[in-house]
Amino acid sequence: GVKSENEKFAGGLYTTTIEGYIPTTGRGIQAATSHCLGQNFAKMFGISFEDPQGPLPNGEARPPLHAWQNSWGLTTRSLGVMIMIHGDDKGLVLPPRVASVQVIVIPCGINAKTSDEDKAAVEERVADILKQLKKAGIRAKSDDRTTYTVGYKFNHWELRGVPLRLEVGPKDVSNNQVLAARRDNGEKTTIQHAELVKGVRDLLDTVQSDMFTRAKATRDANVAHIVDWKDFVPALDDKKICLIPWCETPACEDEIKEKSARTNIATAEVQDEKAPSMGAKSLCIPLEQPQDKPIVAGETKCVSCGKDAKRWALFGRSY
């Protein structure tokens, strides 16, 4: 959406933003911004160019025009937002499209009683799997360390958020299959070796889609449509972000932040004790406004100050 006057880049015309929602704390977080700076800075610093359409009376130089400027910010902060949204108690949970390692292949079922032939067969199969996946452009690697247990390796790569784990043991080799385990939900399935690349690629696509769908559903379920101020702070305390009819004035935003700050933090949650005492600020004015409850000019009133509302705006406690 678009940032409010208070939250936009100082000196610019307007700022657009991508806002994340962290369900664990119920707080919004800015992931990326784009600023239309207009001509303000060009005029201050003398950034100009000749008007290609300008007149040339008597051979004079074309008149100058001041440049329109933009500024974009998309940094590693977005990775932090992604980690906070998808991570769980085991560690990172990375979407396949951005994971540096998409598939980890781990030899399993090998112990002191395993024959040399079976060990060699597993090693050969793991090498073949890696060769096929890498050739197909899938970022894969194997963990063939012999000084660690299989369970240790599972935890090692789960902690790092690798989207898909392939387990290969003597029985899998004889059955011409691999056991695939998803990092996002722990589900396991078998993939036939003859359909390895297609099966892995389809599974990675499914993980990517499911992670997005779950995150979006969680976000949507925690957007509270508020039309009465008495419901605003309780919604915030319930870890929701509030979509409200708003007048868009800076003074009103300051008032909302002040009125929604909680002075009694005795019930604050341990994992984020600053959040309950923090007042709500505008996250953005969504580019896609609610179609079922359009703002009616002169009728729809701002939830906070009672003046005429201009658009629906998202407010929430924020990082």
How would you summarize this macromolecular structure in one to three sentences?
The protein is of the alpha+beta class. Helix content is 29%, strand content 24%.
Structural class designation: alpha+beta
Overall average residue pLDDT: 92
The percentage of residues in β strands lies in 15-25%
The proportion of residues forming helix, as a percent range, comes to 25-40%
What topology, given as strand order, has the largest sheet?
7-6-8-9-10
Number of helices: 8
The beta-strand count equals 14
Anisotropy-based shape: extended
The rounded distance between the terminal residues' Cα atoms is 17 Å
Largest sheet: 5 strands, mixed
C-alpha-based Rg, rounded:
27 Å
Helix/strand order, N-terminal first: EEHEEEHEHEHEHEEHEHEHEE
Low-confidence stretches: 264-271
How are the secondary structure elements laid out?
Layout: E1 14-22, E2 27-38, H1 40-45, E3 48-50, E4 64-66, E5 69-74, H2 77-86, E6 103-107, H3 116-135, E7 140-142, H4 150-159, E8 164-168, H5 170-174, E9 177-182, E10 188-192, H6 196-221, E11 223-225, H7 232-237, E12 241-246, H8 250-260, E13 281-284, E14 311-316
Parallel strand pairs: 6-7, 6-8, 11-12
Antiparallel strand pairs: 1-2, 2-5, 3-4, 8-9, 9-10, 12-14, 13-14
InterPro entries: aa-tRNA-synth_II/BPL/LPL, Anticodon-bd, Anticodon-bd_dom_sf, Pro-tRNA-ligase_IIa_arc-type, Pro-tRNA_ligase_II_C, Pro-tRNA_synth_II
Enzyme class: ligase
Catalytic activity: tRNA(Pro) + L-proline + ATP = L-prolyl-tRNA(Pro) + AMP + diphosphate
